[in-house]
Design a protein that fits this description.
The protein has 6 helices and 6 strands, in the order βαβαβαβααβαβ. The protein is an alpha/beta fold. β2, α2 and β3 form a beta-alpha-beta unit.
């Protein structure tokens, strides 16, 4: 399906990377801002299968934000070498994200933690670069995750690196509902 005329113009490729907190939060902030402009966002979450509060929030703003998860139910952790099931779920998420990006239904498509999935060998660099090369006019694409490779940074239009300066996890504070999950 061909993309309708978009208020976004051509649309750009954004990368949120780094070891600091806030990559997924920034992507969700963009999706929330987009609602105010009447735009629709698809978010495919790689390596995430557990329940997060953003899943409940997305239900409240249907049909503006759609979230699908492609990961196991446990904590985001991949054993090296990657397990077959983890690879299968990542490939499924990649196919579904590509489909959403090309569907003409969404203005913004977020590949949440796709860069981390690449780092753990669940998908290839070629896979990520293909997403960028296939991006249609009028669609904004966001890729998040630690360890962005230079090749991805080179083809992106906007790159933000989250740098951890201090984090209360270091003091033994656990993940809190509504803040970290």
């Amino acid at each position: 399906m061909e993309k309708k005329s978009s208020s976004l113009g051509k649309g750009y490729v954004q990368v949120y990377t780094g070891n600091g907190k806030g990559k997924t939060t920034a992507a969700f902030g963009l999706a929330f801002r987009a609602i105010g402009a009447g735009l629709k966002t698809y978010i495919g979450q790689f390596m995430k299968g557990q329940h997060y509060s953003e899943l409940e929030a997305a239900k409240m703003v249907q049909p503006y934000i759609t979230i699908e998860q492609y990961g196991s139910k446990g904590f985001v952790h991949v054993r090296m070498p990657a397990q077959e099931e983890d690879v299968r779920m990542a490939r499924e998420g990649l196919a579904r994200g590509r489909e959403a990006m090309l569907s003409g239904e969404y203005d913004i498509v977020v590949f949440d933690e796709i860069i981390t999935a690449y780092y753990f060998n669940l998908i290839s660099l070629k896979d990520m670069l293909e997403i960028v090369s296939l991006k249609p006019y009028g669609v904004e694409v966001v890729l998040t995750g630690r360890y962005a490779p230079p090749e991805l940074i080179d083809v992106a239009d906007l790159v933000t690196e989250m740098v951890e300066v201090k984090h209360y996890y270091q003091e033994g504070i656990e993940s809190r509902k509504g803040i970290e999950h």
